[in-house]
Amino acid sequence: xxxxxxxxxxxxxxxxxxxxxxxxxxxxxxxxxxxxxxxxxxxxxxxxxxxxxxxxxxxxxxxxxxxxxxxxxxxxxxxxxxxxxxxxxxxxxxxxxxxxxxxx
Amino acid sequence: xxxxxxxxxxxxxxxxxxxxxxxxxxxxxxxxxxxxxxxxxxxxxxxxxxxxxxxxxxxxxxxxxxxxxxxxxxxxxxxxxxxxxxxxxxxxxxxxxxxxxxxxxxxxxxxxxxxxxxxxxxxxxxxxxxxxxxxxxxxxxxxxxxxxxxxxxxxxxxxxxxxxxxxxxxxxxxx
Lengths: 104, 175
What we know:
The complex is a heterodimer.
Chain A: H1 6-26, H2 30-55, H3 61-91
Chain B: H1 3-24, H2 28-48, H3 52-77, H4 89-112, H5 127-134, H6 143-164
Helix pairs in contact in B: 1-2, 2-3
């Protein structure tokens, strides 16, 4: 366990975060953009837990923050999917380019 | 190189490979399945860090909740068999450049920074400690965020029902 330094776990979470950012930039489908956001939130959770375990091993604050982030991600996914289904009913498409009425 | 670090590299490669496949595959149902594998990889990383409670929460909430919700919404909205259109070439080139430069910047920043441990001790995650500190009002307890999260979840639940409910009297006129 201890032979893996903190840097390598941070590199893993950087990779996961920027993979999610690439998906968010390139995808134009709302459900896949939501999936990219989930990947980014997961990388943040890895960061919280790794800092907690390596730098402050006698406290539990990183674990609490991870639990709260997971909860908020669940609420966010539920609301986003409700909005997507409602948008599909009115526009018959979930592409972000097709939902531009409020843009101008 | 011990067995523990080999396991870490295997988990890291698994998470990154399935994450890349999840954001680049053009069939949306496959993307959701690759996302499922990536989240399972993150849960196994928590197991590797000996955070069994957090790994269980990750599997229950993400794998059992969010991915199933995403798959349901895929079935409700689009034809899952057909391929999504390719992203515009300029957009994918520029987002790949932004991602590569951002990754290089952050990797350089972190590899030069010298992290110092703030306190000593060994990390043990006991469920008793989590429960006690979560419902504590003093000694750095987390009672107020806990209650706020409860209210947020209730508000999200009611909000989802209100948003997704079908209105029969007034059909929407936007076309």
